[in-house]
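Lab meeting, item 3. Inverse folding demo.
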């Protein structure tokens, strides 16, 4: 499995976004995770299109956009114009047909499509989407805030890996990830590791990401 880190920019010092993007690059991040919250799907409002464009102008790193919004379908083209590479939407924002058409729409703009599951959503929720999602994002906190306590979703991750095999679809974990929780998730089959506070809050972000990646590589099943 290809083990990747995706620091969550929402946890960065937003008063100095350029320096934070440079620090993220220098730390060896594989992706930049970008959390969009609308104050309706989650009880918080985060960063949006203009900041995404600014980040796109600063870096070539793939931008991994996590939409915690009730109607992401209204904004797929805009996200593409702003430079998103991956767009992930939650499974419970609409009925199956609508979610499928959103994932198709994301692909039609040349982006990768992710499907996110809150902690209380079971692995079976992905079954209708196995042919149209590139990434399954398993939330290991309730979405809305950085710095929350990790919730162990190992069993869900193992079930997802049974459904999708090792090679085709990535499993991303998001919330409370640090080296020890990354190890737990990697052993179950996760391969993309979002890190907010443990990355941007560390004295050395490079050491923090290296430790997450090292723990994940040591624990992953293949
Ligand atoms: C939470 C967001 C996360 C968050 C991660 O709703 O989706 O990406 O920023 O932050 P940490 O790693 O601090 O839990
Ligand atoms: Zn996120």
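The presenter then showed the designed sequence:
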């Amino acid at each position: 499995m290809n083990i990747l880190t995706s620091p969550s920019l929402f946890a960065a010092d937003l008063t100095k976004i350029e320096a934070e993007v440079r620090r993220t690059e220098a730390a060896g991040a594989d992706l930049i995770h970008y959390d969009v919250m609308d104050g309706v799907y989650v009880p918080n409002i985060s960063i949006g299109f203009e900041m995404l464009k600014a980040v796109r102008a600063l870096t070539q790193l793939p931008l991994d956009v996590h939409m915690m919004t009730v109607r992401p379908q209204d904004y797929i083209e805009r996200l593409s114009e702003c430079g998103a590479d991956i767009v992930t939407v939650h499974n419970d924002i609409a009925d199956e047909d609508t979610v499928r058409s959103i994932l198709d729409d994301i692909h039609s703009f040349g982006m990768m499509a992710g499907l996110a599951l809150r902690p209380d959503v079971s692995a079976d929720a992905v079954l209708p989407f196995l042919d149209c999602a590139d990434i399954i994002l398993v939330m290991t906190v309730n979405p809305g805030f950085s710095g929350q306590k990790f919730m162990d979703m190992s069993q869900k991750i193992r079930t997802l890996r049974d459904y999708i095999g090792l090679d085709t679809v990535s499993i991303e974990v998001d919330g409370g990830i640090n080296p020890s929780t990354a190890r737990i998730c990697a052993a179950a089959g996760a391969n993309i590791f979002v890190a907010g506070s443990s990355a941007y809050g560390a004295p050395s972000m490079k050491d923090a990401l290296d430790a997450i990646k090292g723990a994940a590589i040591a624990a992953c099943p293949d």
